[in-house]
């Protein structure tokens, strides 16, 4: 094995280890704050199907990532105005779950929750979760 091959292998290992820690916390915090500033996300959650407001899972500890995937997917599918920010959040959460990125979050595929909340409550949960990771 020559020196260039060894350096390539070491560099690849370094990239993989850095990628495993990638949480994208700053981007996620910025996107979430942008969505929270949007006044259309504050309507109340009603468990009935008649309501146009979404009831989204507020995850139990250790199930955040799977619930964030489920919740943002629901928002993407049910928002009349397709929002690029929601799509970016969904794709980021899905990548973190699939590739087991962000070791600070559990990668359990099941979203477990005891309560549901409106969009604003769901976004606040995302925000506080990623603010804790950033610290």
TrEMBL record:
InterPro entries: IL-9
Signal peptide (residue range): 1-20
Domain of life: Eukaryota
Keyword Signal part of the UniProt annotation: yes
Keyword hit for Magnesium: no
Keyword entries, A-Z: Signal
PANTHER family: INTERLEUKIN 9 (PTHR16926), INTERLEUKIN-9 (PTHR16926:SF1)
Gene Ontology terms for molecular function: cytokine activity; interleukin-9 receptor binding
Any Gene Ontology CC annotation: extracellular space
Protein name: IL9 protein
């Amino acid at each position: 094995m020559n020196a260039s091959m060894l350096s390539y292998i070491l560099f690849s290992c370094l990239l993989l280890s850095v990628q495993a820690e990638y949480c994208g916390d700053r981007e996620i915090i910025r996107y979430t704050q942008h969505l929270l500033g949007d006044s259309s996300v504050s309507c109340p959650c009603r468990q009935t199907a008649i309501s146009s407001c979404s009831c989204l899972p507020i995850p139990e500890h250790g199930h955040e990532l799977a619930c964030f995937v489920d919740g943002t997917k629901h928002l993407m599918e049910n928002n009349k105005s397709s929002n690029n920010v929601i799509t970016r959040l969904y794709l980021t959460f899905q990548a973190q779950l699939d590739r087991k990125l962000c070791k600070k979050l559990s990668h359990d595929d099941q979203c477990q929750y005891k309560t549901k909340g409106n969009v604003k409550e769901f976004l606040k949960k995302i925000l506080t979760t990623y603010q804790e990771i950033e610290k």
